[in-house]
Amino acid sequence: TQPALFAVEVSLFRLLEAWGVRPDFLLGHSIGEIAAAHVAGVLSLADAATLVTARGRLMQALPAGGVMIAVEAGEGEIAPTLPDDVAIGAVNGPGAVVLSGPAEAVTAVAAAWAEKGRKTSELATSHAFHSPLMAPMTAEFRAALAGLTFGTPSIPVVSTVTGKPIGDEFADPDYWITHVLATVRFADGVATLHEAGVTTYVEVGPGGRLAALVPEEAVAVATLRPERPEPLTFAAAVARLHTRGRE
Questions:
Q1: pLDDT tens across 191-218, in order?
Q2: Residue 121 has what pLDDT?
Q3: What residues have CB less than 8 Å from 91, skipping those under 6 apart?
Q4: Domain 66-125 listed as CATH 3.30.70.250
Q5: How far apart are CA 176 and CA 178, in angstroms?
Q6: Above 80 in pLDDT, residue 245?
Q7: How do the domains of the chain map onto residue ranges?
Q8: Any bridge partners for residue 67, and if so which?
């Protein structure tokens, strides 16, 4: 799945680029940050493919048993209630987190929040990504990173490990290890872009869900949506960007 997501994201970016659409900033959600690093010039296509395939292969080799569940709650209110074995896998918005960890523990926490009237939804994932359950794959992953060459971004990239702009840190293997284990700070990244004056967001991927997580006053455009024909959806996205002044 991870190499497939990477391939779709890079392909969509290159098609937009060929049609004259070029971003001022890049922000990648989880595996999307590898695609962002590649198109920004940090990694060659070969090295990015090596990274993403090693990451996916090593994660899939881990024991099953973990889950990820989205919960309608803010990080600040839910974090103090979590047991040690449940991690916050992602902070997608002010009231949108994803819990990650052992199935029984995560399910129990989600059920408690559902009883409070909060929405919950289990994600269709094979493992509990962005949690300590990923730790056993990090040694082999570090070895895979050793042969890669990292450059400097030619397009500004905002990290979802820190939620802040990133540059030379991409070349540190520890960054990519942390990227596997740590919370995806998508909401912090969006806040950084908002502070930088970004008013138009383009979701370059197959889901179409992240576009709903940007500030209400901004315009969000999804290049693909599961329920719509791909050529029509992509063409409509480019047309909407044109009306926003993107030639």
A1: 999 999 999 999 999 877 888 888 888 9
A2: 96
A3: 75, 97, 183, 184, 185, 186, 187, 188
A4: yes
A5: 5
A6: no
A7: 2-61+134-243, 66-125
A8: 101
pLDDT for res 93: 93
- Tell me what percent of the residues of the chain surpass a pLDDT of 70: 99
Q: Go through 70-88 and write b for each residue having 16 or more CB atoms within 10 A of its CB, e for each that does not.
A: bbbbebeebeeebeebbbb
The answer on pLDDT for 142 being more than 90 is yes
Pairing of strands 120-122, 157-158: unpaired
> 7-34: b or e for each residue (b if 16 or more CB lie within 10 Å)?
ebbbebbeebeeeebebebbbbbbbbbb
68 CB contacts (<8 Å, ≥6 apart)?
89, 98, 99, 100, 106, 122, 123, 125, 128, 129
247 pLDDT exceeds 60? no
Tokens at 93, concatenated? 């918005």
Does the pTM surpass 0.70? The reply is yes
Kindly report the CATH class assigned to 2-61+134-243.
alpha beta
Most confident of 61-70, 199-208, 238-247: 61-70
pLDDT exceeds 70 at position 246: no
Tokens of 68: 């990820």
Mean local confidence (pLDDT), 96-118? 97
